[in-house]
Amino acid sequence: MCTGGGSGIGRAVCQVLAREGAKVAVVDQNEAGANETAQLIGADASKAYTTDVSSSSSVRELLTNVQTQFSDVPTVLVNSAGITRDAFLLKMKEENFDKVIDVNLKGTFLVTQALARMILENKIQNASFVNIASIVGKIGNIGQSNYAPSKAGVLALTKTAALEFGRMGIRVNAVVPGFIDTPMTSTIPDKVKDSLLQLVAMGRMGRPEEIAEACLFLASDRSSYMTGTSIDVTGGMPVGL
Ligand SMILES: NC(=O)c1ccc[n+]([C@@H]2O[C@H](COP(=O)([O-])OP(=O)(O)OC[C@H]3O[C@@H](n4cnc5c(N)ncnc54)[C@H](O)[C@@H]3O)[C@@H](O)[C@H]2O)c1
Questions:
Q1: CA gap 47, 49 in Å, rounded
Q2: Which residue from 38, 101, 229, 233 could staple onto 48, CB 3.0 to 4.6 Å apart?
Q3: Is the C-alpha dihedral spanning 197, 200, 201, 206 positive or negative?
């Protein structure tokens, strides 16, 4: 199961998981995006779900529908749903602070909690959760006094969930993207993009697939002794961190 599966990194994650033989629940608030991803993968390997991850009732409904329609409980979760609402701190509106925390941090919490409960109820022993954080959650970013703390929170939530779930067979890790070419970054003016790329050792933006491959590693048994940790996929941004 992958949230934010209707676009960008989430879509690439869905495609990579399906490539490896998984049946994928494509979860997104954007119905058209989720449907498009499911169509790209094929109806035999995926189903689309319209869900708002920041709403506990929407998440509960999602889990019930996924279990019924797949006749199974997901053992892989990638939390990729996320938003930005950028403004300088002095001008940041309270509602935009709350909204970003609600989707990025609370949404990750709600889906994690709901699926972990279902996994335990069904006595499943081996599951892997992957949270998409961000490098700005480690280093901060001008204009993102809502987004950067939401992603720092995702990293702390990852470690906490790993501690609580470690003996229950659920591993929880994070992938930390740098500057990735998706609809989220497409509106950034070229001048700003150029200055951000100065900070990237490899001198280019990442591709969604490059994040998805790291998610696949953490989702798979190849990372069977990893939990509570994170993998930076930033092309070296900033070098030395
Ligand atoms: N693009 C980057 O440079 C970058 C860098 C670091 C981290 N990230 C993170 O990667 C993740 C994916 O971002 P992306 O670049 O693919 O962006 P994107 O905008 O292409 O995709 C995000 C998806 O999340 C969905 N979404 C938003 N709010 C939702 C909600 N309440 N419930 C369910 N779905 C919701 C959107 O509809 C969209 O399909 C996000 O968590 C983002 O913060 C992105």
A1: 7
A2: 38
A3: negative
State whether residue 135 is helix, strand or coil. coil
Ligand 1 residue neighbourhood (C-beta within 6 Å): 3-4, 6-10, 28-30, 33, 51-54, 80-83, 103, 107, 132, 134, 177, 179-180, 182-185
Residue nearest (by alpha carbon) to ligand 1 atom 23 = 4
239 confidence band (pLDDT: 50, 70, 90):
low
Active site residue 49: no
Asked if residue 68 belongs to a domain, the reply is yes
The average confidence (pLDDT) of the chain is 97
Distance CA 222, CA 231 (A): 14
Residue type, 47: K
Asked if residue 35 belongs to a domain, the reply is: yes
The vertex-110 CA angle with 116 and 154, nearest 5°, equals 95
Distance from the alpha carbon of residue 131 to the mean position of ligand 1, in angstroms: 12
Give the phi and the psi of residue 180 in degrees, each rounded to 5.
-115, 140
Confidence band (pLDDT; 50, 70, 90) for 238?
Answer: confident
* Domain contains 73: yes
Ligand 1 pocket mutation, candidates 15, 37, 83, 185, criterion most atoms within 8 A of CB: 83
Q: Cα separation of 104 and 131, whole Å?
A: 10
